[in-house]
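A brief tutorial aside. Many learners find it easier to grasp structure tokens once they have seen a single protein encoded end to end. The record that follows does exactly this for 3-dehydroquinate synthase. Read the sequence first, then the structure, and try to relate runs of similar tokens to stretches of the chain.
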Amino acid sequence: MADAKVIRVGDDYDVVIGHGVLEQVPSLVPDGALRVLIAHAPVMTAVAESLAEQLTARGLQPTLAALPDAEAAKTSAVAAELWSLLGEQGFTRSDAVIALGGGATTDLGGFVAASWLRGVPVVQVPTTVLGMVDAAVGGKTGINIPEGKNLVGAFHPPAAVVCDLDLLRTLPRADLIAGLAEVVKCGFIGDPEILRLAADPDAATDVDGDMLPELIARAVQVKADVVAADLKESSLREILNYGHTLAHAIEQVSGFAWRHGDAVAVGMVYAAELASRAGMLEPSVVEEHRKALQTLGLPTAYDDDSAGDAAAAQARWEALRTAMGRDKKTRGATLRFVVLTEVGEPTRLEGPSEELLRASYDAVVG
Ligand SMILES: NC(=O)c1ccc[n+]([C@@H]2O[C@H](COP(=O)([O-])OP(=O)(O)OC[C@H]3O[C@@H](n4cnc5c(N)ncnc54)[C@H](O)[C@@H]3O)[C@@H](O)[C@H]2O)c1
Ligand SMILES: O=C(O)C(=O)C[C@@H](O)[C@H](O)[C@H](O)COP(=O)(O)O
Ligand SMILES: [Zn+2]
């Protein structure tokens, strides 16, 4: 096994990043656990079974639960099924959950751990780039409801996060690239060196090279520094939500046909357009967003499918505008956006006018 990198989140837990680090998972299950739920993405069944064997060899009692794929896992029905399973199996407060999969799996697994007996330990084992750099780190857990994305959830920091880069070998390229949107986000909000490194798309997407682990580690470091200072998003943590106001609306309105990372890419261009039109950001930095994202193969425009139908286009905008009103940064009727004044300098834009919201949207509609 090549050297693993370990990033500590505050005084709380480690994020282990490297090839072959999956074997560390059993030793990271907190002492005192007897029963361990492995909630996993369907594609991770073989990995989950092998992990279960390792846990059994250590005297633990694993239970496997294959979740529905992707966003279909993040529902109250799936959470309720797992609560029943934990109840049937007699999981106590010293028992633990392992979430093994992409961000949807770690969000759901984390939420079940947060809510079972008001909180049992969770070891997060992300298997997508997005899960490694973002979803599994920082303790935001949650599910979707018909009214919106991530509207129910809890802050529940993990006991450990294990990012085994070997698992990325089977990840479809489109999902790998979507995960890089959150890496680019970290470049724009906190570590501009990421943007320089990510300008080489071949290196950035090579699972066996040195660049992807470097990008993953840098993005985790940005997130670790932020959540260590402001776990519950009283203020600073909002910067991790850069691009997410429109992104979550796009995901919701498309019925989750859009990948989260792809939507975040468009959402960042939208936030940059807003800031530029509000006189807070140089237009050249808006173009820098488009270039950084397009270089990696990420979308920078939203195709609203209205094909010249003005009424359909207006209805789509209204649906997105309603969904943006449910963003967690909104206060009362006031929309609040994370925007930049320059690369690496995030701030907030509060209560932009409807005209500004719409003009910036028109600038990102493909
Ligand atoms: N809690 C947070 O802080 C946070 C941060 C960012 C994103 N998120 C959430 O994360 C979710 C997006 O995560 P995602 O992009 O990982 O999507 P995902 O979990 O839906 O996974 C994408 C696809 O990849 C498949 N997959 C996962 N790992 C694989 C592997 N190693 N090989 C082959 N296929 C694999 C999955 O089965 C799925 O079909 C969204 O729900 C988003 O809201 C949460
Ligand atoms: O960790 C955070 O804080 C983030 O905002 C990270 C985001 O990338 C992530 O998508 C998060 O789930 C969004 O949270 P929400 O509070 O807007 O639902
Ligand atoms: Zn995100």
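Self-check: Residues 134, 138, 140, 150, 182, 233, 237, 240-241, 244, 328 surround LNCXM5UN (ligand 2) (CB under 6 Å). If you spotted this yourself, you are ready for the next section.
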